[in-house]
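Continuing the series of single-chain predictions for the mutant panel. This is the parent chain; the variants come on the following pages.
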Amino acid sequence: ARAAAPLFSICSSDDFWDILFPNVCRPALVNMSGMSAVPWAKKKSVAFWRGTDRGGVNWAMEVRDMFRASPRKRFLDAWSSDEAFDLAFLEDDLLNASVVNTDPGFVPLARWPEWKYLLDLPGNGYSGSLKQKLT
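Parent structure:
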């Protein structure tokens, strides 16, 4: 026989017995359950991603690879024009973090639930965002 067992999670609902556990990456977002208030049928049926192209050099196996496109760039080049995707690079400045937030294509975390599919592309990014995308 199967029995429901509680798990530690950053999200919970009446359907599960999850025990809420603080999101150590973003303490202000301890309970992310409310982020999924958009009914599935009302979400946009496209894959969504916003980010920068930081970390492209991290994927280089050889010096010449640093001059090729990063995995993110190659993905966006291949799929940006496809209607099944809503993808965009954001302006970036390593010395001024506010540049990303002022980019016209920036979408705040609170709006991510508007899309059915949230992509997590390899590269330098906020690793904790994968947890939010999974909740």
